[in-house]
């Protein structure tokens, strides 16, 4: 009996010691919250942008009219200044910020692809890039210039993944790959090279990565990553300050979604996938960010009893992840959708709750 009690105390002490050694995530407290919409019609898909001066913008898709429209604006000294008119969008869209309150908006509308440049919420110029058969737009600012991706129908069996850019003030495009069913392209830059992640489907959905030169787009090299799923994956990628590539993705059947994380120092060799939430519950929509030495994955967790979604965060670092360690599981706030930006210890979150859009600012301290 005494021996059993001694073993129990040793195990208890060890558990307490390990718990103290594990860095805990401090729950984010929002110092300010702005309610951006007041409507009886749903506002959905909020996106955050930050310009080179640190100004914060929020944009979303409004369903208050028969035709959905992109709306939003900039936060200005505590006041939210909205765009005067919306941009019709039956399809997908994306936004990115360049110079001070300069915005690039890429949208599809009934299969057509449009690009708009706005300054202080006033349109400077717009272009119709493609007349039909487009989807999944993505826009990114690189050295002050916009680069944009989309998929375009080639025929009844194949789609093309294209990249657009400006040459002498005129938009041009180049086809990167032609295959069946292309989804969710995203663009990254490292060491004067572009990387594009995307998904294609043959038997399962597979993650791919295309590598090519910048600023001259040439020598396209395409490889399949060692990750796949029977369902379309929601993925988020990041090239950290040391040049490592991280990817987090959602997979699994409905009601059984899980999120996994992997990284590669060279885009060739990848760590084994690690589940970021190894407990019971549905987790979806990963957003991967870097903060100092830490890699943070924000995502949504379903509370089945309350029938609500909550934002949560999980963290790791370059030093501890090779051993499969992922730390911290704290709920942040209730939401239906969200987007997030980290700026020098400040966190900006926009979220949709019960049809309205909110913007919050807070501070956090996480050390993995």
Q: Could you say which structural class the secondary elements and strand pairing correspond to?
A: mainly beta
What is the number of helical segments per DSSP (H or I, 4+ residues)? 1
Chain-averaged pLDDT: 84
Strand elements, count: 29
Order of H and E elements: HEEEEEEEEEEEEEEEEEEEEEEEEEEEEE
CA-based gyration radius: 22 Å
Query: What is the distance, rounded to the nearest whole angstrom, between the alpha carbons of the first and last residues?
Result: 40 Å
Percentage of residues assigned to helices: under 10%
Structure, explained:
This protein is mainly beta. Helices cover 5% and strands 60% of the residues. The protein has one helix and 29 strands. The protein has one helix at 2-21; strands spanning 29-35, 43-50, 56-62, 69-76, 79-82, 87-88, 93-97, 102-109, 112-119, 122-130, 134-142, 145-153, 159-167, 170-179, 182-190, 193-201, 205-213, 221-229, 234-239, 245-251, 258-264, 274-275, 283-291, 294-303, 308-317, 327-334, 337-343, 346-353, 356-363. Strands 2, 3, 4, 5 and 6 form a five-stranded antiparallel sheet that branches. A four-stranded antiparallel sheet has the order 1-29-28-27, with no helix packed on it. The radius of gyration is 22 Å and the shape is globular.
Quick tags:
368 residues; mainly beta; 5-stranded antiparallel β-sheet; 1 helix; globular; disordered N terminus
């Amino acid at each position: 009996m005494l021996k059993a009690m001694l073993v129990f105390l040793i195990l208890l002490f060890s558990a307490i010691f390990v718990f103290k050694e594990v860095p805990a995530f401090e729950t984010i407290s929002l110092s300010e919250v702005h309610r951006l919409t007041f409507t009886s019609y749903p506002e959905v898909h909020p996106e955050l942008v930050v310009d080179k001066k640190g100004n914060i913008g929020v944009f979303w898709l409004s369903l208050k009219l028969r035709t959905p429209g992109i709306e939003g604006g900039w936060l200005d000294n505590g006041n939210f200044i909205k765009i005067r008119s919306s941009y019709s969008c039956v399809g997908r869209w994306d936004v990115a910020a360049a110079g001070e309150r300069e915005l690039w908006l890429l949208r599809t509308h009934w299969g057509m692809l449009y690009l708009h440049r706005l300054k202080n919420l006033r349109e400077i110029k717009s272009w119709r890039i493609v007349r039909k058969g487009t989807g999944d737009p993505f826009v990114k600012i690189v050295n002050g210039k916009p680069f944009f991706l989309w998929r375009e129908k080639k025929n009844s069996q194949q789609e093309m993944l294209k990249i657009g850019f400006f040459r002498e003030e005129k938009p041009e495009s180049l086809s990167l790959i032609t295959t069946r069913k292309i989804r969710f392209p995203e663009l990254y830059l490292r060491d004067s090279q572009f990387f594009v992640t995307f998904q294609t489907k043959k038997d399962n959905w597979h993650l791919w990565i295309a590598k090519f030169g910048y600023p001259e787009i040439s020598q396209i090299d395409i490889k399949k990553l060692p990750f796949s799923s029977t369902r379309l994956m929601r993925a988020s990628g990041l090239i950290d300050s040391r040049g490592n590539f991280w990817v987090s993705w959602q997979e699994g059947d409905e009601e059984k979604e899980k999120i996994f994380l992997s990284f590669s120092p060279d885009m060739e060799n990848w760590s084994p996938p690690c589940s970021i939430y190894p407990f019971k519950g549905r987790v979806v929509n990963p957003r991967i960010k870097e903060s100092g030495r830490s890699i943070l994955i924000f995502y949504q967790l379903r509370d089945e009893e309350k029938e609500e979604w909550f934002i949560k965060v999980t963290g790791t670092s370059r030093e501890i992840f090779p051993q499969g360690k992922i730390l911290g599981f704290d709920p942040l706030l209730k939401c239906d959708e969200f987007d997030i930006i980290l700026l020098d210890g400040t966190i900006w979150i926009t979220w949709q709750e019960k049809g309205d859009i909110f913007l919050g600012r807070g501070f956090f301290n996480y050390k993995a």
